[in-house]
Amino acid sequence: MTVQPIRLFGDPVLRTPADPVVDFDAELRKLVADLIETMRDEGGAGLAAPQLGVGLRVFAFDVDDVVGHIVNPVLHFPDDEEQDGPEGCLSIPGLYFDTKRRQNVVAKGFTEHGDPIQLVGTGLMARCVQHETDHLDGVLFVDRLDPQARKAAMKEIRQAEWYDAGAPPVVKASPHSFGSLFGKGR
């Protein structure tokens, strides 16, 4: 397990849809361990593989003392109930904006060993699962804001200390052997 650097807003891997996991091997288990270790080190509720530069459909979560991961998630919504509240992202550090999400979610996928799992989430867990699954689709939470809120969010991002509009995004090599340009798996 190793804490990895988190890709920040502007890195192309965050806008690239991730590939399904097809190999449930030691490399995937190392990725899951790195996701959990990095998420905990940063104090996040969730972390998706693209945020570490790996274009695979897997994320980790730590919500209300429930720590886990899901590979190749598929979401189902049992009802139309919504929630609206502050949301942040480790790839957009220090900024939080009210974001509408579904209140309840059922995520079906697999463990790092390829065993089927189902995660039923409500409230914060539902928000986390939707947020991290968005990362796997190349969607950031600011994309879900209404136009006025998105404009305000982009203004704050451009003013953030970590954001450098004059520099091209830094694309780092993944520490995982299946990572390549833009974190796409082979």
From TrEMBL:
One of its GO terms (biological process) is translation. InterPro entries: Peptide_deformylase, Peptide_deformylase_sf. Binds 1 Fe(2+) ion. Pfam families: Pep_deformylase. The keyword Protein biosynthesis applies. CDD domains: Pep_deformylase (cd00487). Its EC number is 3.5.1.88. Keywords: Hydrolase, Iron, Metal-binding, Protein biosynthesis. It catalyses: N-terminal N-formyl-L-methionyl-[peptide] + H2O = N-terminal L-methionyl-[peptide] + formate. It is an enzyme of class 3 (hydrolase). Its cofactor is Fe(2+). The active site is at E132. It comes from the Bacteria. One of its GO terms (molecular function) is metal ion binding. Fe cation binds at C89, H131, H135. NCBIfam families: pept_deformyl (TIGR00079), PRK00150.1-3 (NF001159). Removes the formyl group from the N-terminal Met of newly synthesized proteins. Requires at least a dipeptide for an efficient rate of reaction. N-terminal L-methionine is a prerequisite for activity but the enzyme has broad specificity at other positions. Belongs to the polypeptide deformylase family. This is Peptide deformylase. It comes from Spirilliplanes yamanashiensis. The lineage of its organism: Bacteria, Bacillati, Actinomycetota, Actinomycetes, Micromonosporales.
